[in-house]
Amino acid sequence: MMTCKQVSKGSAYKYYGRQVAVGDGRRPRGKSLEQAQEEAGVPPGVWMGRALPAVGLVAGDRVTEGQMRNLFGEGLHPDADRIVADRLAAGDSPAAAARASRLGYRVQKWSGIDLVFRPPGSVQVLWALGTPPVEVVNSFVYVEVWSLAGRATGGGYFR
After folding, report:
1. Which DSSP string do the residues of 66-91 spell out, in sequence order?
2. Does an H or E element contain 105, and which?
3. What is the pLDDT of residues 6-55, one digit of tens each?
4. Cα 103 to the chain's mean position, in Å?
5. What is the pLDDT of residues 130-145, one digit of tens each?
6. How many CA atoms lie within 13 A of 37 on its CB side?
7. Collapsing DSSP states into helix, strand and coil, what is residue 1?
8. Phi-psi label, residue 156: left if phi above 0, alpha if psi -120 to 50, beta otherwise
9. Number of C-alpha atoms within 13 angstroms, CB side, residue 154?
10. Pick from 103, 30, 16: nearest CA to 63
11. 3-state helix, strand, coil in the chain (%, to 5)
């Protein structure tokens, strides 16, 4: 099964943080991402892919809400706040520090379409009702499939 959602005009991080990162539900207003994920039983997202070292990220590190805002909302490095603080401490001007954290441009129109693939219901039932050994196998297969997808695309966000 697949769902499709157009992500537009700087709203990608809001869409990911309010819906996708909490299991495609709707995150209640005022709840932190971590709290909503825990209540929904959704593990936190982690960075993965071959391109991560090029921007100083480490595969397996947790994706924070601020990182999603920086990257998907502003076109900044996920760790832009740290980069700017480090550059200012090193004596750079505010403008130079801000330039050092920019990866691209803020999305002005629409950025793309989010396609979400889900396993068939029978696999979901097996996951939910399986014995501990079945859960281990399901988890391994799930992580491997998404790991392969990340390697094929050169990076991305994994949940």
Report:
1. HHHIIIIIISB-TTHHHHHHHHHHTT
2. none
3. 776 666 677 777 777 777 677 788 888 888 888 888 888 889 888 889 88
4. 16
5. 888 888 888 888 778 7
6. 16
7. coil
8. left
9. 3
10. 16
11. 50, 15, 35
